[in-house]
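Protein modeling request. Please complete all fields; requests missing the sequence field cannot be processed.
Requester role: graduate student
Desired output: 3D structure, token encoding
Chains: 1
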Amino acid sequence: MANLLKRKPLSQIVSEAKEEGEEHLERALGPVSLTALGVGAVIGAGIFVMAGLGAHYAGPGLMLSFVLSGLGCAFAGLCYAEFAAMIPLAGSAYTYAYATLGEIFAWIIGWDLTLEYAMGASTVSSGWSSYFAEFLKMFGIKLPLWISYDHWTGMEVAKDTAAHEFLAKTHPELVSGTQGFLNALQAIMASPPASLLDRAHQLLSPPHLFGAEIGFNLPAFLIALAITTILVIGIKESAKFNAGIVMVKVSVVLFVLVLGSHYVHPSNWGHDWHSFAPFGFAGIGSAAGYIFFAYIGFDAVSTTAQEAKNPQRDLPIGIIVSLFICTVLYVGVAAVLTGMEPWQLVNIGAPITYAFLDHNIHWASNIITCGALAGLTSVMLVMLIGQTRVLYAMASDGLLPRKFFAAIHHKFHTPWKNTILVGLLAACVGSVTPIDKIGKMVNIGTLLAFVMVCTSIIVLRITAPDQPRPFRTPGIFFGGRLPIVPGLGIIANGYLMYSLGWQNWARLFIWLGIGLVVYFTYSVKHSKVQKLPKAQEGD
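Delivered output (539 residues):
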């Protein structure tokens, strides 16, 4: 009978990390490239897309939501840094759990990471499409709404357009972009008249399939396929592409902070706790849970361990520096966004661009749109890298079919087959599913991974105290028996999991249930670790 808690020996993990050659991943990433990969994943979805969703849960308290999420990430990030330096192997949290908690937990976290990375890429592709629609408008091109968004998001965009038209006809004395105009727009959207809804449906004009209205987000589908092609070509080329994009979008974020601060109305932040946090601390916690997946950039860095030139030194640098840079920028943009217009009017798909459009600053919105496109492109790139490297690690251990998921291209040295599969999955999901629905699925998977990494670092400090550690997580005393930092990570991320509600827990358990069926019907029978002599179990 299989030993479900059998651990992968640390000696074997370290040996695999040193392997090189045609059938292994190419080591081409230094500290700057790794930090850029982290910033590339974090700055994008959180600022350019998920900030809009978070504002509708926390109001101006979104600033505190980013702080809360950042704290949970900081604690988990310090644990990731120790693991990444000690176990420099592709697979991230999956590999760490395999070395400490045992195979069944490693499988659960590896399967769970699919929710984090592949579905995260789908979320971002949907947000990318919203900014791409604004980009085309700069050249006078307007795609039909039904081919620019999924059906439900397209209807919301049509309602917003119809509300602007309605307000211009009924209140011509209001100047577009003023606070009075925004307040009137907020009131109309809260209770839209029937004529406005009819006009929105006319603007959408969706085709029908078998009597049902349909929508297909074609730009989201195509960008996911384009990023997949780049990843198949090679990690070095992908890193160069990403580094250039990161420079562009960080410049745009700083531009938003400087220019947007001149249009902030402090009254939009509220005058007391209730108006600052309209749904209380529970709303701030819910928003923190929903925006949390945007922080997966730093843990995606750890999935590229086998492609880092000096992983023991460079991975902790990439993880910690990228996390610090992004958290500071997140909080600043949240303050500007919720200060520029009432939180009820913050757009979910393209919040920053619309904030400037509502103030009639079209030239600035054009710059922001270009930066957002660059930012979201790099996020998709890093998320898809993370997913394919986790699948590669699982297949290398025998838990998935090796000939497919661990097949390395002889010329590009990338896991090309599983990259194509993951890209197609992300493209299909992102093209037909509303961004908020995918985003809610992603977050609980991310948080579970963080909780298990924090738990794993405690276990490893107790079971392998003498293992060489180029980087040590601070705040762990008495050989792991007083784990302050990992314990705070478990509490903070566990609270965010709790705040996501029972629907997301139900989705998580259903997904994990499917994964366990795969594990017991295939993985446990093909596991390399299960075939090791008992004397070699663990280390």
